[in-house]
TrEMBL record, chain A:
Component of the nuclear pore complex (NPC). It comes from the Eukaryota. It comes from Clathrus columnatus. Its main location: nucleus. Belongs to the nucleoporin Nup85 family. One of its GO terms (cellular component) is nuclear membrane. It is found in: Nucleus, Nuclear pore complex. This is Nuclear pore complex protein Nup85. Keywords: Membrane, mRNA transport, Nuclear pore complex, Nucleus, Protein transport, Translocation, Transport. Functions as a component of the nuclear pore complex (NPC). GO terms for molecular function: structural constituent of nuclear pore. One of its GO terms (biological process) is mRNA export from nucleus. PANTHER family: FROUNT PROTEIN-RELATED (PTHR13373), NUCLEAR PORE COMPLEX PROTEIN NUP85 (PTHR13373:SF21). Signal peptide: none annotated.
From TrEMBL, chain B:
This is WD40 repeat-like protein. It comes from Clathrus columnatus. The keyword Thylakoid does not apply. GO terms for molecular function: structural molecule activity. It is found in: Nucleus, Nuclear pore complex. Keywords: mRNA transport, Nuclear pore complex, Nucleus, Protein transport, Repeat, Translocation, Transport, WD repeat. Its main location: nucleus. WD repeats lie at residues 8-42, 56-90, 593-625. Belongs to the WD repeat SEC13 family. Residues 452-483 have a biased composition (Polar residues). PANTHER family: NUCLEAR PORE COMPLEX PROTEIN SEC13 / SEH1 FAMILY MEMBER (PTHR11024), NUCLEOPORIN SEH1 (PTHR11024:SF3). It holds the Pfam family WD40.
Length: 626, 654
């Protein structure tokens, strides 16, 4: 039912500040219809269940009746709140409390002389009371078989009365209706007086029944109340037929007063919470409606409040920080979380409750388990089954989508940060970078970069290259990062991975070019100088036939090496060697410096070769051909 | 409410605390057996099963509190213990990390399961650590701890995110030692190792696969009992500008009391039960489970409480205290708790609560003989056996025994107001709201005093030289300072009182055993719930200074709140019609329930701060909710032993 809420919110946002027009009321009437359809479907679903959930079905029926009454009282289909209400109430009664039972009618009509049965007359009277003209006429037609000619005649008269009974729905103006009704009532009164005269002389049993019928038609309050008392619906039946038979001019604001007189004879059953809701709705006591609905059903209270708010019916408590409508909706939304799988609906409801609701929705969205990397249906104790190359859990995408839709940017970022951290733990670094980037958590991004770089040092170069390659192409464009430090870090990571790839592929010259470029563009973090210099040394001695560096590049490397060594002599060696130190076996910095000495030697030798061969730059020394 | 799960025999001994992780999908439990277990919820079946189990003892004494870090810090768990330490554990070994590679750290720590690695040992506390709580993530990686030495300690973890630290495999121990923390490298079973560590020394450990190092350092060390109330405005009249020292109940003597006494209690059913609210709008998340038992003691984020069942045990024997192991001369003197009268009902108030500082304790210690029974307690290092001090506070006698005290803390969850923490320490029950500011001394911005104003004037007023009778509800006499008593005739409190049962028997202590700061969720005020040993659950409505004070905004924007402020000030501001009082924190009490009628062990909020859960020695977990009319009402309760429940209905008052 949430889907309506959104359109409802959109619609009312445009009309809240002004008085509601008839069109608006018709529009809201349509919304109420939608809720009623949902309730009906819910009931049908329950009806299909086996065993039949009697209590649940009854509860749904009550909800339907209440919502329907709210609609009848506040959202007239024609949009006119000031109009005559009798027919609408009668329709509500006939829709929600179906009576009399049609199977009983069939049984009664099978009888040879049904008019001998009190039940038959009672059935007829209830049909008339409820405005079921067609059924009543069928019953009266059967009186034509009656031996008494007088009764046959009376039946004719009654049928005539019923078929000519003016119903407000059939008239276009109230004036026409009232004048028609006055004429009709005068005829009924005249007939009643004749009957009363007959009753003095004759002692036929049917005569008193006919008189009762005529009294009801004439709107005799005592008779109508007496009959309503014998029916299950009691006071509800009375108030709903009142506007058709007794007070045809009854309007919505008359109901409260009328009901007070009815209650004197037909009290409500105070043990049933729904009775209170019905009564409050009839009397337009909005606060009482919400309060009693809340006792009956939290969904009902929330959605009634939601409908009442834009209609201007709700009065918030003075000084309340939150509107009654929002309070009820939030209550319902929290209640929904009893079933954690309903978090989406709960969050949507909350998001519709102003800023405070959105902040609550934040908490809900934040705490939806992301279950990243856990394959469905395989959650076993102590074992997280990780699917390799599994697309990111759909749930996290869904949550992020909702966050975006409602502009919950803070939460979206927090969820991204959590996801990023989880992906680090799971070794899915490409996703970690994506999520940290989405969260604009640069510390997080650099954290992943650090991890990846440190992994490259652990020897699993191929894995390192694969991890870097997996990073989304857009994220590999350093220009997509506004932060310079991150941009440099990421550029170094990418370049270093390219360098490693080329080196792995045996493309020494291009690898050397990469290495030099990284130094020249000052991308190499100081702590990594030692590592890269060491690797340059390794390249120099890898293949004597290949001259990977130009002379100027050798100068560059020597210059860097010199800086490392001189700084180390001043005690700042770790600044340059901290990445290299863990790689060497023992003695830490001393060993690292010793290894760099061999690099210096290799560089010197390479330099010498360059001079002797006059190569002047990179190239392959071809075996001299004779 | 339905009980959704019952974890039978969760631990070998009583459980002291149970804590949900951020999502409510995992549950960490710890108890007297000094071990921690992590339980995992199968979201499909709703079953809880053990996921990780510490093979060795996590601590050298009972575990008092467990707390999960926000998941953006990774899977971190902090454990506080009666061995005076706090440990930070990290779960490793998921894909991408190789558990084997950290065995050096793990085995060095010695108290871990395969997957949980000890990352830090914080051993500055001079008494049993009663609470540990992670700060809101906005403040970085911080934890606050409070110990029975009345000190609130804030630790911060700094990540040195460089490539210098080695990777996970190989050589990780170098990084660890390079940081120079002796305690981290000390074999854990050595008590000396714990005591040797230099207070305040940063504790550094490398991350598992992370190339950054985590360094924990003590950044604040606050004696809560001696903390003065900060005053913003200059004082009027001849009053001193700063509060006299010792305005709080002088509990300093408890320092060094250490953990006293105890351990195993025989005859208890070590069972944890988990239940979820299924009807009323209980907690958030699937499981707003409660762990049940007769004594309800622990609890965490999503309205969770933990407890231990005690059914029908009349005699609780105090074996030699595990705590004694860490104390000099702790030769393990057995002490025995006398029968508590034979009624099973009475046994509820048994010794376990002593450990947790929750139940009435006279029966727990040395039998029913009262405080003299404490002679059985093994002396703790540095303190004589005569550690029991009693002082008169108003009409009630407050014992200064550790067993009578209450220690707890709770962070303000909303980072907007800066780093603010509520703490309670000792037997006075006064909740102190402390504001922490970088580069400045922490300051107490508001004190909430649960003592009846008629009886509790005690030292506080006298030490300040104030007139006790003029403003009976008000403890602070200086403008801008707030020192509140709950016994204001507010309409809400009066309404709440209608739902309260007649007063319980005279409590032995007024100590506040548990406090919980509600997530504010966009409200302009804060709610702090407090459970106390006198059986009351109170909810304080705390109002921070208006934003204009903090932000320098126009006054117009806050005019709407002005009336409410004045309303608050009638109770909170004190010092007459001084509108300038709007510049400070104020509070009023909005609910005061006595339904538990026995000591309250724990209070906890749901994630939106709309439902309060409290657990008491009456063996019930009670839920409280606010109506639209701002009246707090009982929403329902459940019996943690019988698993039956009583729904009072989700009432709504217009």
């Amino acid at each position: 039912m949430t889907k309506f809420n959104k359109s409802l919110a959109e619609h009312r946002s445009g009309i809240l500040d002004e008085d509601l027009s008839e069109d608006d009321l018709v529009w809201f009437n349509g919304i109420a219809d939608e809720y009623l359809i949902c309730l009906k479907m819910d009931k049908e679903r329950l009806d299909d269940q086996d065993p039949w959930p009697e209590a649940a079905v009854a509860h749904t029926e009550i909800l339907y009746a209440i919502f329907n009454l709210f609609q009848a009282m506040n959202l007239p289909a024609n949009g006119s709140l000031g109009g005559l209400v009798g027919e609408e109430l009668l329709e509500w009664l006939n829709t929600n409390f179906i009576a009399p039972d049609s199977t009983e009618a069939i049984e009664l009509q099978k009888l040879n002389s049904p008019w001998d049965e009190d039940k038959w007359w009672q059935y007829l009277i209830r049909c008339i009371l409820r405005g079921l003209t067609r059924a009543a006429v069928v019953f009266l037609e059967s009186l034509k078989q009656h031996p008494s000619k007088a009764l046959v005649q009376h039946a004719e008269t009654l049928i005539n009365f019923l078929t000519t009974h003016p119903r407000s729905t059939k008239f276009t103006t109230e004036h026409d209706f009232f004048s028609a009704w006055r004429q009709w009532k005068a005829r009924v009164s005249a007939f009643r007086k004749r009957l009363e005269g007959l009753l003095e002389n004759e002692n036929e049993e049917w005569l008193s029944w006919v008189l009762e019928i005529v009294q009801i038609m004439e709107g005799d309050k005592a008779t109508i109340k007496r009959y309503c008392e014998s029916f299950d619906e009691g006071w509800k039946e009375a108030i709903c037929v009142w506007g058709v038979w007794v007070d045809v001019g009854m309007r919505r604001h008359h109901i409260e007063r009328t009901l007070a007189t009815i209650f004197q004879d037909l009290p409500l059953d105070s043990t049933l919470p729904e009775e209170h809701v019905f009564a409050a709705l009839f009397q337009s006591q909005v606060g009482e409606v919400i309060k009693r609905s809340n006792e009956l059903d939290i969904w009902l209270a929330a959605h009634l409040a939601d409908m009442m708010q834009p209609l201007g019916l709700l009065m918030d408590i003075e000084g309340a920080k939150i509107s009654l409508r929002n309070h009820m909706i939030l209550n319902y939304a929290e209640y929904l979380l009893v079933d954690p799988s309903l978090w989406r609906i709960s969050a949507l409801y909350m998001c519709d409750c102003g800023e405070q609701g959105k902040i609550r929705a934040d908490e809900i969205l934040l705490r939806v388990p992301l279950n990243l990397g856990i394959s469905k249906g395989k959650q076993k104790t102590g074992h997280m089954e990780i699917k390799e190359d599994d697309p990111v859990d759909e749930r996290v995408l869904e949550i992020l989508e909702i966050c975006k839709e409602y502009g919950r940017e803070k939460v979206r970022r927090e969820i991204c940060r959590i996801a990023g951290r989880t992906f680090i733990d799971q070794g899915r670094y490409n996703l970690a970078i994506s999520y940290y980037t989405s969260a604009e958590d640069w510390i997080g991004v650099s954290r992943v970069v650090d991890i990846l770089l440190s992994r490259s040092l652990k020897g699993d170069t191929k894995e390192f290259i694969a991890s870097v390659t997996e990073i989304a192409p857009t994220l590999r464009q350093p220009s997509s990062y506004s932060q310079i430090s991150i941009r440099r870090r990421l550029t170094f990571l990418i370049k270093y991975a390219e360098f490693q790839t080329r080196w792995q592929n045996g493309d020494l010259q291009d690898a050397a070019w990469d290495l030099i470029t990284m130094f020249r563009e000052e991308l190499v973090p100081k702590s990594w100088w030692g590592v890269l210099l060491k690797q340059a040394g390794d390249m120099l001695i890898q293949d004597e036939n290949i001259m990977p560096f130009e002379v100027s590049e050798v100068y560059e490397l020597l210059r860097r090496l010199e800086e490392v060594q001189s700084r180390a002599s001043q005690g700042s060696g770790l600044d340059y060697l901290s990445a290299l130190v863990p790689q060497v076996s023992k003695n830490g910095e001393i060993e690292a410096l010793r290894q760099l000495e061999t690099v210096r030697l290799a560089l010197a030798r390479y330099f010498a070769r360059c001079s002797v061969l006059a190569v002047g730059g990179r190239g392959r020394i071809l075996p001299q051909t004779a | 409410m339905l009980q959704t799960n019952l974890i039978q025999n969760a631990h070998a001994d009583l459980i002291c605390d149970a804590s949900y992780n951020f999502y409510g999908t995992r549950l960490a439990t710890g108890g007297l057996d000094q071990r921690i277990k992590v339980w995992r919820l199968d979201e499909q079946s709703g079953e809880w099963s053990v996921e990780d189990e510490w093979k060795k003892r996590a601590h050298d004494a009972a575990i008092s509190r467990l707390a999960w870090a926000h998941p953006q810090h990774g899977q971190l768990l902090a454990s506080a213990s009666f061995d005076r330490t706090v440990k930070i554990w990290e779960r490793v070994g998921d894909v991408g990390t190789n558990p084997g590679s950290f065995s050096g750290v793990g085995s060095g720590a010695g108290a871990s399961s395969d997957r949980w690695v000890e990352r830090a040992l914080l051993s500055e506390a001079k008494g049993s650590v009663r609470c540990v709580e992670w700060a809101p993530t906005a403040f970085g990686m911080k934890i606050a701890t409070i110990a029975s030495d009345n000190h609130l300690r804030i630790y911060e973890c700094l990540e040195s995110a460089t490539a210098t630290a080695p990777g996970g495999s190989g050589g990780s121990s170098t990084g660890l030692n390079a940081a120079g923390n002796p305690s981290a490298a000390t074999p854990p079973d050595s008590v000396l190792g714990i005591n040797m560590s230099t207070p305040g020394a940063p504790v550094t450990t490398p991350g598992p696969s992370q190339p950054w190092a985590l360094t924990w350092s003590l950044i604040e060390d606050i004696d809560v009992s001696a903390m003065p109330l900060f005053t913003i405005l200059p004082t009027t009249g001849g009053e001193p500008a700063s509060p006299a020292p010792g305005q709080s109940v002088p509990l300093a003597t408890t320092t060094g009391l250490g953990g006293s006494e105890f351990t195993t209690v025989s005859g208890f059913d070590t069972t944890a039960s988990v239940s979820a609210t299924a009807t009323t709008s209980g907690g958030a998340g699937s499981s707003s489970p409660f762990i049940g038992g007769k004594q309800v003691l622990g609890s965490t984020a999503t309205t969770l409480t933990s407890t231990n069942a005690g059914s029908g045990s009349n005699i609780a024997a105090l074996g030699n205290s595990s705590f004694g192991l860490s104390s000099q001369g702790g030769s393990g003197i057995p002490s025995v708790v006398a029968p508590t009268g034979g009624s099973p009902g009475n046994t509820v108030n048994s010794s376990f609560g002593v450990l947790l500082g929750s139940p009435p304790t006279t029966s727990a210690f040395g039998g029913l003989g009262g405080v003299t029974g404490l002679g059985n307690v093994p002396p703790v290092s540095g303190s004589s056996s005569g550690t029991v001090h009693t002082s008169k506070v108003g009409n009630s006698t407050v014992s200064n025994r550790e067993a009578d005290g209450g220690w707890d803390l709770s962070w303000c969850k909303d980072p907007y107001w800066g780093e603010v923490c509520a703490a309670v320490a000792g037997g006075s029950g006064i909740i102190k709201i402390i504001q922490l500011q970088a580069g400045q001394r922490p300051r107490g911005v508001l004190f909430l005093d649960p003592r009846p104003s008629s009886s509790g004037s005690g030292e506080t007023l006298n030490s300040r030289g104030a007139t006790p009778t003029s403003t009976p509800h008000l403890r602070a006499q200086q403008p801008g300072s707030q020192f509140l008593s709950p016994h204001h005739p507010t309409s809400a409190a009066a309404a709440a009182a209608n739902h309260s049962k007649p007063a319980s028997p005279k409590p032995s202590s007024l100590a506040t055993t548990s406090i919980s700061w509600a997530p504010s969720c966009g409200r302009s005020y804060h709610l702090i719930a407090a459970g106390s040993r006198d059986g009351k659950v109170r909810i304080w409505k705390v109002r921070p200074p208006p934003p204009k004070i903090l932000d320098g905004e126009d006054e117009d924007e806050t005019d709407a709140d002005a009336d409410e402020y004045e309303d608050e000030q009638r109770y909170g501001g004190g010092g007459g019609p001084n509108n300038n009082n709007k510049t400070s924190w104020s509070a009023s009490i909005v609910a005061d329930f006595e339904d538990h009628a026995s000591a309250v062990g724990k209070v906890a909020w749901n994630i939106t701060g709309t439902v309060l859960t409290s657990a008491g020695n009456d063996g019930r977990v009670r839920l409280w909710k606010c109506t639209y009319g701002n009246v707090w009402r009982p929403m329902g309760s459940l019996d943690v032993i019988q698993s039956d429940d009583v729904i009072d209905g989700d009432r709504m008052e217009e």
